[in-house]
Specification:
The chain is built from one helix and four strands. It has 79 residues and is α+β, with helices and mostly antiparallel strands. The longest helix is centred in the N-terminal third of the chain and has 22 residues. It binds zinc ion (ZN).
Length: 79
């Protein structure tokens, strides 16, 4: 005598897990496609496509960043 639709049986855990499992893989696939990671041709580490490699500082065979010269963190402000 219910006025709204009521499920006849309880949804099993396996069905819930299947549903959300497919959702998870879909989202992960989307995220991995958003940030395209490629292997750096110079040093072999992973880097984001169309960006300077953070490990060797090269982009398309050209040295862009000086990774020997490290930038010191600003701890004091000179007046
Ligand atoms: Zn590199």
């Amino acid at each position: 005598m219910s006025k709204h639709p009521v499920p006849k049986k309880k949804t099993p855990k396996s069905k819930i897990r299947k549903r959300y499992g497919s959702f998870k893989t879909k989202v992960l696939k989307k995220l991995s496609n958003a940030a395209k990671l490629i292997v750096c041709p110079d040093c072999g580490s992973k880097k984001v496509m169309h960006e300077v490699c953070r490990d060797c500082g090269k982009y398309r065979g050209r040295q862009v960043l000086d990774n020997k010269k490290k930038i010191d963190k600003i701890t004091k402000i000179k007046a």
